[in-house]
Amino acid sequence: MATPYYTKQPVYIEEPSGRFDNILTNERQGPRNSYHVKTPTRLNFPYTPTISIISSANYQDYQLTHSNFQQRAFDSHANMELNVAAPMIVRSTEEANYVYNAALWIRGMMKMQWLKDTDPGMPPPILRFYAHGIYKNVPCVIRDFTWNLDSDIDYVEIPSGINKGMRVPVQNMFVMTLSTTYSPQDIRDKFSVKDYLSGSLRDKGYV
């Protein structure tokens, strides 16, 4: 059965550096430690997720005595957050492997490298989010991730490989919060409200 998980989709998250083992590819050359380690890792969402966008601006209140109204002064614009609820359907053991590895990868992208890693102390990577051509190359980090193993649903057991014996639900919902993040130099050199409104910054990740 052909699976859509290995095909580029309208909505996906990418880790562009290629500094991690790519556990979300079906191009293998042997055991796990021989995956293509220098290629970007892409998490595809073949079943259209629900994406909620949260934008907010912060204002300070001036509490004036003997006044019926307070004045507000602009303080800052908060980085946008995206709440993603993505269905992950399992129809085969191959897809069960992908969904489990996807959950493992998401959790890994929230962790700092540790003593036995190549670069101990390095923080989690900056990912890139793409959705429907509306959001392109959006730099973000994963703030939280929820994956429920429900009791009222069938499971698919993985019969072989490193995930042998694991049971994955046939219907899953990956829920996560992505928070946008930009480097100071990138903001200084590229951003302006005029360019933002014209749409010329869309492919540079400004949302």
Descriptive account of the structure:
The protein is an alpha+beta fold and 207 residues long. The chain has one domain (10-22, 31-53, 83-204). Helix content is 14%, strand content 34%. It contains 3 helices and 11 strands, in the order E-E-E-E-E-E-H-E-E-E-E-E-H-H. The chain has a 7-stranded antiparallel sheet, with helices on one face. A two-stranded antiparallel sheet has the order 4-5. The protein has a two-stranded antiparallel sheet with strand order 9-10. The radius of gyration is 21 Å and the shape is elongated.
Q: Overall 3D geometry? A: elongated
- Global Rg: 21 Å
Provide mean pLDDT, rounded: 92
| Percentage of residues assigned to helices | 10-25%
Give the DSSP E fraction (strand runs of 2 or more residues). 25-35%
- From the helix content, strand content and strand pairing, which structural class follows? alpha+beta
Distance between the termini: 37 Å
Number of domains: 1
Tally of separate helices? 3
Low-confidence stretches: 32-37
Largest sheet: 7 strands, antiparallel
Give the strand order of the largest sheet, numbering strands 1, 2, ... along the chain.
Answer: 2-1-7-8-11-6-3
Q: Write the element-wise H/E pattern from the N-terminal end onward.
A: EEEEEEHEEEEEHH
Number of strands: 11
Provide a brief overview of the structure.
With 207 residues, this protein is an alpha+beta fold. It has helices at 93-108, 184-190, 193-198; strands at 11-15, 41-44, 50-54, 57-62, 71-77, 81-89, 127-131, 135-147, 155-157, 167-169, 171-180.
Topology:
Blueprint: E1 11-15, E2 41-44, E3 50-54, E4 57-62, E5 71-77, E6 81-89, H1 93-108, E7 127-131, E8 135-147, E9 155-157, E10 167-169, E11 171-180, H2 184-190, H3 193-198
Antiparallel strand pairs: 1-2, 1-7, 3-6, 4-5, 6-11, 7-8, 8-11, 9-10
